[in-house]
Amino acid sequence: MSVRRFERQVRFAPLGEAGQARLADARVLIVGCGALGGFLAQLLTRAGVGTLVLVDRDIVEESNLPRQVLFTDAHARAGQAKVAAAAETLAAIGGPTRVETHARHLDADLLPRVAEGAHLVVDGTDNLPTRYLLNDWSVREGVPWIYGAVVASGGLVMPVLPGVGPCLRCLFREPPPPGTLATCDTAGVIGPAVGAIASLQAGLALRLLARPEGLTPGLIEVDAWSGETRRLELTRDPECPCCGARDFPWLERPSGTEAVSLCGRNTVEVRPRGARPDLATIAARLTSSGVAAQRLGPMLRFSADGQRVTLFPDGRALVEGTEDLGRALAVVDRWVGA
Fold it and tell me: What is the dihedral of CA 96, 100, 101, 104, to 10 degrees?
């Protein structure tokens, strides 16, 4: 490790050389590498965290560029997988950080594998089911995680320290019904809000990795438009079904083959449906049917029935141009196979 590279950071007394050494040995899982996750990955790379594991199911599109700092117009034009584009940008920063990528949907089957050996998990995702899954795993395994959410001009941050402070379900017992919360699709989102929330998450991440002693968990609320901040002191709920009763339903849910609509994307994700597809065979079949198919690294892309489909090696598909789950499933069934 270059001493000069981190000399200003090491001069920060609460971190120091010992804390920097702990960062260099740390392994961090970042779930989602778009808006929050991209800021986080960049900050932790520049700080010298030893290993970052990035998991994201999405591809880069033009509407990402105002707030997702790891991506360029070229990434969007190519529709590159976010984890691949992120790794490319992070590599250009240099430094000692190793980056592992998984262009996958995170479910209860994948999480234990990608989180193996992690000292910390950081939330860069945009959906509640994944956050409840992370919370269940964190409490069960005793590994801290940092919740973060942003919409419009503000957001929330909360570190979850199993056995020390409250977990997500102490605060939000169950996810609210769909459509009851504002989303980036309904309320929009601005880049400074993303940066503010991600910076707080990154600061807490460095603290937890380097010198976690004495950290008091709390819920932090920030609005980048008004400049207002608020911190709520929280305590564990002894009747919490997760950290109290140690019930982990989100870890026990089957992965399933359902389709889900992606936040603000007019895109549906269709989950894998069994064996890994043979993309070369599918491309040949599409071509013979008059459908132009394009290989993009490990992915296959084609347009049919008014939708653009990106098929990943694990069988997952993104169907752009619709929020209708049934239509997305029908397009995949017709052109890829059930």
Answer: -150
Q: What pLDDT, on a 0 to 100 scale, did the predictor assign at position 1?
A: 57
Angstrom distance (rounded) from CA 179 to CA 30: 26
Question: Which of the following CATH numbers is that of domain 259-335: 3.30.310, 3.30.70, 3.30.1340, 2.40.160?
Answer: 3.30.310
Q: Give the chain's residues under pLDDT 70.
A: 1, 177-180, 185-186, 254-257, 264, 273-274, 338
Residue 158's CB: how many other CB atoms inside 10 A? Answer: 27
Options 3.40.50.300, 3.40.50.720, 3.20.20.120, 3.40.630.30; which CATH number does 7-252 get? 3.40.50.720
Q: Yes or no: say if 65 and 71 are a contact pair by the CB < 8 Å rule.
A: yes
Q: Decide if 219 contacts 200 (C-beta within 8 A).
A: no
In this structure, the dihedral spanned by the alpha carbons of residues 238, 168, 204 and 21, taken in order and rounded to 10 degrees, is: 80
DSSP per-residue string spanning 182-199: --HHHH-B-HHHHHHHHH
